[in-house]
Fold each of these.
Amino acid sequence: MKIVFFDVDKITREYLQNKPIGCGEVILLEESLENISPTQYRQIKDAEVISVFVHTALRMNNESLDKFPALKLIATRSTGFDHIDLNYCQKRKIEVVNVPKYGESSVAEFAFGALLALVRRLIQARTDMKNNFVRMNEYIGFDLYNHTIGIIGTGAIGRHMAKLAKGFGMDILAYDLYPNEELSRILNLKYVSLDELYAKADVISLHIPATPQNYHLLDDKAFEKMKKGVIIVNTARGSLIDPEALYRALVRKQVAGAALDVLENEDFIIHDDIILKSQDIPIDFAMNTIVNARLMQMKNVLITPHIAFNSIDAVHRILKTTYENINAFCEGKIKNSVLKK
Ligand code: NAI
């Protein structure tokens, strides 16, 4: 059996070399699925197991997966699986497994760090210091203490975010399809409607998955309902925010700032060579890329390359679960399936 890991970095290589998977031939590639050379493809086209990361620019759909006729398992090294076409996998009887829990503390700590960096202008102050051009008035921020955070999604990460917010002395509003009454009691967190959260929160932080129902949840209408000067934090998924609507809201100062670890079609920023090489990039991908580039230029927008998970502790937890997922498959068992049975 051939087991192919894509997007392999130094940490992943070292981990898997020290802890060999129990069956088959393991091939570790630095490239993403869409960037492999014809020679590499010849070596791996009979792969039965592939492991990918979220930085898969083109969704893993029939076009990319048809290239692997023997494929039986996709082990994504992430919690989210919106980069994989599950309907297609189900039709082809390809199992899809993920890492359901690894980094609520890692992502929430990052979200809070990005929020603090944004509201206290850390990046700008550091850049100005380096350029010997310090202007104190430019760095005036606001305390999080006594301000209101609105947390959308109180699952594993949102819950941890709420704990950190409590530590900072913030008032906490939350919205979730399934309110957690115990959390509400312990943290003095108040579940409200989305409209009330929009109207009252000084900071809105997103912690829900990307689903068709919440595609562009934050659109022009949503921004209009928010408190003027709100701060947006998104460490969940780019498609939750309409990037053009956010750009417009920032320009008219309805939104005062945004910390974005994820962007819609973010991979085209990191792998812009895909756009250059491709003959037929869909127009909305190209538009997103232009708006993302504009957002990146704004002083009050802090964009990071999808790294909220990226602490050594979380990466080791991801690798451990992926290793266990594939080893279970070797023993004929399925662990952490994301397919509806
Ligand atoms: P989770 O599954 O534990 O929690 C998600 C929560 O969202 C649940 O409570 C669910 O009821 C709620 N929810 C789902 N759809 C909703 C909707 N339309 N409206 C209101 N609530 C809704 O997920 P977890 O682990 O907390 O992850 C949250 C997000 O963070 C996911 O999108 C995940 O992909 C992303 N993430 C980002 C990382 C990064 O590096 N930037 C790393 C890990 C996760």
Note: The chain has 15 helices and twelve strands.
Amino acid sequence: MHVINMIRLVHRMGSPHTAERAMESLDPVGCRIIQLPKISDARGNLTFVDGGRGVPFDIKRVYYLYDVPGGETRGGHAHYELEQLIIAVSGSFDVVVDNGFHREKFSLNRSYFGLYMPQLTWREMENFSSGSVCLVLASRHYDEADYIREYGDFQKAAGLGT
Ligand code: T46
């Protein structure tokens, strides 16, 4: 590993971003929290996502994770091209993101915050609360060829490793 890469390999896992904190500074991994509109009235809250407005990609696919058993993890891979916005529409979970240089943890627990994840981001999702629902807006249709499932392959794709 190059010396410069070793210097930039920073693990800040002890101090997860809350959505509020993350908005104050650009995350070094390249992820960021996007605040979505929240319309509140006596009947409850409403949040919407308008394609082409506020989300930095065209939305091609929507999927959601739910009924995740306690202690279970999801992800554990990266994508060559896919960009995503991840929203805890119900409950909470943590997303660990890694660009090969830096590793950060985001705790998502608000229906009106989305975590934007650019291409070439390794992600691991954990600590799902009971009944939580993870909504994902994606920039591409499902394509197994876009997955990077081995961390070593991810490092090479990110310009690291040998
Ligand atoms: C990510 C996290 C948050 C499909 O057929 N279509 C789809 O759109 C998706 C997402 C998955 N699948 C199939 C492929 C596998 O046979 O569903 C199965 C489970 O998919 P995967 O192991 O990729 O699920 P997660 O939860 O580990 O990861 C998914 C996304 O793949 C990933 O990009 O960020 O959710």
Note: The pocket of dTDP-4-keto-6-deoxyglucose is lined by residues 61, 63, 65, 74-75, 79, 84, 86, 123, 125, 136, 142 (CB under 6 Å).
